[in-house]
Amino acid sequence: MSEHFEEPTEDGGVGARVRRREDERHLHGKGRFVADYSFPGLQEVAFLRSPVAHARILRIGKPKRHADSIVTRADMQGASDIVADSSLPTYKPSSHPPLASEKVRFAGEPVAMCFAATRAQAEDIAEEIELDLDELPAFANAYAARDRTDVRVHEHWTDNLFLDLSADIDFEARAKDAPIVVKQKVDLARQCMVPMEGMAVLAYWDHPQSQLVVITSTQVPHMIRTVLAQCLGMDHAQVRVISPDVGGAFGYKCVLHQEELCVAWLALTYRRPFRFIEDRREHLIAGANARQHHYELTAYADKTGRLLALDARLLIDGGAYSAWPFTIGLEVGQALGNLPGPYDFRGYRCRTQCAATNKPGFLPYRGVARTGVCFAIELTMDAIARAVGREAWQVRHDNLVRGADMPYTNVVKKHYDSGDYQESLRRAVQKLDLPKWRARQRAGEKDGRLVGVGFATFTEQSAHGTTVFASWGLPVVPGYDQATVRVTADGGLELRAGIHSHGQGMETTLAQIANEVLGVPVAKIKLVHGDTALTPYSTGTYASRSIVMAGGAVAVTCRELIPRIVRIGAHLLKEDEGAVRFEAGQVVGTAGRVTLGQIADAWYLHPDRLPAGVNLAGLEATQGFKPKVDTGAFSYATHAAAVAVDPQTGHVEILDYVIVEDCGRMINPMVVEGQTIGGTAQGIGTAFYEETLYDDNAQPLTSTLADYMLPGPTELLPIRIEHMETPSPHTEFGAKGVGEGGAIAPPAALFNAVNDALAPLNAVVSETPLTPRRLLAAIEAARASGGAVVRDENCGVAQ
Length: 799
Description:
The protein has 19 helices and 29 strands. It is an alpha+beta fold. The protein has a 7-stranded mixed β-sheet. It has a 6-stranded mixed β-sheet with strand order 7-15-14-13-8-29. α10 (392-399) runs antiparallel to α11 (421-432) and α14 runs parallel beside α15. It is globular and about 95 Å long.
């Protein structure tokens, strides 16, 4: 998918293209997922789900012959509701019952759970339950929910707003007398995450250990243990969470799901193994929603297009519940704080509201909030360029933070640690070969299609930690990530980390970091992760934090071992410690050298060879790490696209796609490219295909993959990637996170390219996904307006 064809290596430290070690087992079908486990007496779980979006529960009638295999909320004694609190101003908590209690708040909400020897039998039992509901008016969109207070999703609230945040930073003074005023309305459709493996959880009671063991497909095993212990009234030591191989997550698996708590309660109560595997229809109608933002923007600029001030109103459709632990505040706060993006302006006013609707709760999805804000600010940049009659990339370039101004604190106090945003744009313009496409535009296509080019630049706040999350008052605040490093008796390494990999290649990249510090071949390094009983604490994998946090912890822990290794090595060489040095896995003296394997042999197998006063901590250490400045190591990139638009059919073809990215020092460039390409594929899905639709009664209309469209190999073209490496001054090796970035910019870059192509028709599009129907409607609206610049009621320009 990229233009790089360098052969991977089998060994190497930081910067090497080491082949991903985890790929072999997956390519040969040898991975182990929750569905692969087998236990004697295992019971499979199925859920009876609400057929309506909003109703009072009048009765749940259990058939007598299956009463012992059916559980409702009233039966779940000892289990508390899931409550995600936040100290953000105006935040309203929503108690989330593991099974619906008194009311159902979205179609697909679990009402009862049934268990049997097979899933099919459990589903048959669920079919026999009699569910009597008193249906209530349902909110299918955020505007209706926001504007009504007589019907409320949560009765104890006074309205239907989860949150109402605002900021005003020198707006009036900066906007006053601006000669260019551009107004824009931007909408993003609701989406699902659609990982290859959906939600999956198996729980059993470990009698020898007197412990509840929960095997779940999660990104955050330690956090899941925390909340399960809390909700079940257990000591943490009584709960063990194991996360095996995870078939994709994208944020869907960094929260506690109702079903996880339900299955854990079953195992605790009945002391038997139980399992639930989410099917695709359950995921699409009830599993997770994301992305649904509605923007009204007004930009104030000078006559060259230099942005002076930005006024924004944002409404987010939050669904029915706030998820533990990040809450709906994560999306709302990130949107308000990240809307200014990589741009240098000093007047900002923004109001961000999140409405509760009768849909599944809004969850973090790859690129949390930033895909929406990038889409909004980047389309606005192009609108400014149209208003002042300049090339969009030139206006964008003039507004970007300059490399000479780094480190830079922006209008909302985001601390951009390093980089050259303008240079990434200049390289993207060059790599795309903009003059070539402009010449092709002028010449016209023989088939009548219209060619356009578009750009989008963004920042990705990666590995933000204590300072940021504590300000939101969340139930769990990330701090120091820890790693344990153990030298084995033959000179290999065991790494133990609390983060968990679900496709990022951590088994490879963390081994590369250990190789960089201690010189041990990657093949002799084993990563243990995903088990709370075996690994040091970590809040887990999210927010593009793993390589910075866990990688930093591995690095500092490996360095902690070097003085111990040197002392034993010097003794074996019969030399003073000051006369030897550690180098590439060996202790080197004036007359010889000893390997790490020989040193480990002395510690474990021949202690008679050890020096007096040897460090009794041995060849194992645990250390914690967080960046010197933990408000984020900011990666960034510019995406550039060339497209051809057929004004007759509404079809868009991507002709070229270029990415110039900078995630600091790359641990493994091949892994970075894989992450970037995968994220870009998801971003193309956001731009052109994916939309979770509901009717006026909040009934889901996209319940299968025949209705919910995803991009496939035929929709993706080779993506050309160029790397910049500007190290962060705050992290080990200068690394920054890159996991989410690929998904952020594609909708903006592609829509800008389409709008560039549509310029001769004076049509503008700004609502995802860009289906042929929407594109043709925008063209028809432009024709009907007699040539005025329009977008299907979403865009206008004033000068």
